[in-house]
Amino acid sequence: MKDTLQKFMVDNAAVRGELVEISDTWQQVQARRDYPAAVKTLLGEMLAAAALLSANLKFNGMIVMQIHGDGPVKLLVVECDSELHLRATAKVVEDAVIADDATLGALVNATGNGRFVITLDPRDKLPGQQTYQGIVPLDGDSVATVIENYMLRSEQLDTKLWLAADGQVSRGLLLQKLPTEGGIAAPTAQPEDDAQETWNRMVMLGNTLRADELLSTDIATLMRRLFWEETIRVFEPQNPQFRCTCSREKVGNMLRMLGAEEVEDALSQSETLAVDCDFCGQHYEFDAVDCAQLFATDTTVGIEAPAARH
After folding, report:
1. Gap between the Cα atoms of 164 and 172, Å rounded
2. Which helix (H) or strand (E) holds 282?
3. What are 177-193's pLDDT values in tens digits?
């Protein structure tokens, strides 16, 4: 079974939805790091959420979701592009003791200074188009609630999320109430009162979904179980995949940003500079000749050396 994202629409109503199941991609993310169980849950939920939100991107580009923490977890990052290519990583304080049932607050908002960052980065920017970044406090006791509050404040869209993850699979359900006036009108013939009633009913059905049920039930079964009384229109399923965008050239760019003086100082303490990608574990090494080449021109040079030397 491939990782799957299924979009659907409630017929003649201003409600759209998505269900996602991520297994293979989630296993590839975890293969790089041995995260505590509570961190796996948090990162897996973010992975599902990023796929759900990316499925409706209106541009060719990427959504980046980050939680910057002030507890034992300092950073969680998930990236997903408009083709549903995903990668994710987390930075955990070394030797931190984390209970399996640790809450979002205990992990990343211990002193109230945690924050949620979402970045929308078009790949082929149109004239005047800029990368958008929103930064908000961690307003909520779960990843789902934090994102719901962000979407309501920043996008003025009623959004509900149900997320669950364990060591095997990451799953999620998204429901969104489309606007019926102002901006782009929703494809619905329903009056506003009826549209609100449909939305309330769909959310109520979603609220019957338990985390263990979400984790153990495939998409088709969940669709039937939750919405069997609704007239649902489903679209062609999409398949999320793991893909890392790191490269030797990008690492070279990073070293150039550090500056020649700092790079030379690091080389004085070691014959080579070693960099491992946080997302995929790819190992890159740069020796003195490589680094000299980086600073020999005004533009970054893609060095045709192997990824690692032994």
Report:
1. 6
2. none
3. 987 654 444 454 556 66
